[in-house]
Design a protein that fits this description.
It contains six helices and no strands. The longest helix has 26 residues. About 60% of the residues lie in helices and about 0% in strands. It has one domain. InterPro entries: Cyt_b561_bac/Ni-Hgenase, Di-haem_cyt_TM, Hydrogenase_cytochrome. GO terms for molecular function: electron transfer activity; heme binding. This is Cytochrome b/b6 domain-containing protein. One of its GO terms (cellular component) is plasma membrane.
Length: about 200
Amino acid sequence: MPQTSGNPAEELDSLTIFLHFGLMVFGVLTWISSFWAGDYKSPHHWGFTVHKMLGLGTTLFLAGRLFHGFFGPQAARFKNWVPCRSDQLKAVFEDLRGLLTLKLPDRPPHQGLAGLWEAFGLLLFTWMSATGFFMYVFLTPGSRARGVLHLVKELHELGEFLIPLFLGVHLGAVLLHALAGDHRWRKMFFLKNPSN
């Protein structure tokens, strides 16, 4: 069973869950559509257009989550779960040691290794949104990217490898916890957790 203290500060509010859901849907669709976005060089660039529109949706949800992470309720604030203090980093190393012995981390949401990985995901999506928005503003469909724009495009394309890595580990952890009886994932779909 997951270690929950019943502290209301650990409970995620509906806006946090909604923003996570929007990031999940738009982020995955944007990543999938990226495989057709290379047609920006041609006069007919429907793949690039779809990717661009989905990317804007991702950016809006991300901006909402970043704002909420700095000014929202305590449980949603980054300072409470992004591992930058010594006690938070200690929890990350405890979780890593536990994984080496095939023991799943048993912590409240966003704590320990989960907090580190979720912080990585937010940084990754922030990077992808910033570079994508730069291209949205400066890339002219039907022409090649040159100079700084080409560099930003290449850096943006790192997401083709980093996003599946993030999603694979994140979804793998959710699946392993669900198999162990921790169905916290249900909250992200506004469903009741049967273990509560």
